[in-house]
Amino acid sequence: xxxxxxxxxxxxxxxxxxxxxxxxxxxxxxxxxxxxxxxxxxxxxxxxxxxxxxxxxxxxxxxxxxxxxxxxxxxxxxxxxxxxxxxxxxxxxxxxxxxxxxxxxxxxxxxxxxxxxxxxxxxxxxxxxxxxxxxxxxxxxxxxxxxxxxxxxxxxxxxxxxxxxxxxxxxxxxxxxxxxxxxxxxxxxxxxxxxxxxxxxxxxxxxxxxxxxxxxxxxxxxxxxxxxxxxxxxxxxxxxxxxxxxxxxxxxxxxxxxxxxxxxxxxxxxxxxxxxxxxxxxxxxxxxxxxxxxxxxxxxxxxxxxxxxxxxxxxxxxxxx
Length: 321
What we know:
Blueprint: H1 19-30, H2 37-44, H3 49-63, H4 67-74, H5 77-86, H6 90-102, H7 109-116, H8 121-135, H9 139-146, H10 149-159, H11 171-184, H12 193-202, H13 205-219, H14 223-230, H15 233-261, H16 268-278, H17 283-294, H18 298-305, H19 308-317
Helix pairs in contact: 1-2, 1-3, 2-19, 4-5, 5-16, 5-19, 6-7, 6-8, 6-9, 7-15, 9-10, 10-12, 11-12, 11-13, 13-15, 14-15, 15-16, 15-17
């Protein structure tokens, strides 16, 4: 997949948009006895995040009530979690996911990897601002306090949000970097993690793609295999995530969606996070990748794994309800 292709969102801003009308529909859906979940799903899954926030603003203006509080009191369980996620401004949503991943007992490194390894500089800066506004701490400090060793260094570097972002590829530099990676890894006893850290955190994604290609020419094998052989644990997972994101970001998320639903029990938090944060970006591509990799549709997995209004709302985000 060409990284510069237009990506396929499944949720786009509705036009014409009447936030007052939507607020009235939601009010009616929650007023009196019983709740009209269908109306709630149809409004909220067919509006962009920004539009949902405008609806909440109008809702409070018209009825003097908080839309999120009303939704919470009318719904429960996973459906409630999904609606609250849809109603949260994206930077705050990411900030909360990162905060919950680092606070409490044990760290959910998977969440840190998923967010920190896939975001652009601008997204990282916006998330950092939201994080400080919400928790009074710097994201970097919380990440550093909760991780250790080389993984901590990688997270700190990514947290700087200072990756090169030009689209120009310098083939000569790519060759040099590929050589440095080779010398820092396979050609020495032990591994010089700092070289991997420097290259994978500071080069642009198109430049990294060229570096990985040069690495293949130099060694005859894939950089991913080298990372598997040289690293272990969270650092290995994070470096391999960066490689995957460089090559095919939708596939990275497709695999995570698959993982969230396969086996016993569903990792609903991961499922909700990916569906909510990617629906306006590339959920269409993710869904295509899911089907081509697993031979079944993402929708059919959601059908089989989730139920009730929660299921319908997830399908709504795919444009299927």
